[in-house]
Amino acid sequence: MPIDATRPYDDSNIFARILRGEIPARKVYEDAHALAFHDINPQAATHILVIPKGAYVSWDDFSERASEEEIAGFVRAVGHVARAEGLVAPGYRLLANVGPDSGQEVPHLHVHIFGGGPLGPMISPR
Length: 126
Ligand code: 5GP
Hints:
Elements: H1 14-19, E1 27-30, E2 34-38, E3 46-52, H2 59-65, H3 68-84, E4 92-95, E5 111-115
Antiparallel strand pairs: 1-2, 2-3, 3-5, 4-5
The structure holds guanosine-5'-monophosphate.
Guanosine-5'-monophosphate binds next to strand 2.
């Protein structure tokens, strides 16, 4: 069910639990600011989620409250993962859902990296 991205951070969410090591994930990258792992229900040949280590509900929350260091670290981590996966030459897509209209389901900021083949239209036709 889509979440309300204006709510305070709830540290029982599934990605907070992955960060704490309470549930497993297929990790592809980790540094001081970010963790990247394969999506459990991939929507493309390559579908990786990158999350900040800090407690942020969404892109909105992160862009408002995160420090310059966290923002730089997270953005660099997303770029690093895409390069490491060999996605730059063939191309890839980034997506961050925020709130109900987007269908955001997990209330911890995550950027989706999609790649591994042609990705089709940017969004579903209305
Ligand atoms: P959202 O709709 O919030 O932008 O995307 C949430 C994503 O998290 C979905 O693509 C979903 O498949 C993925 N996801 C949900 N639960 C888990 C989990 O426990 N592990 C992993 N690796 N991905 C998850």
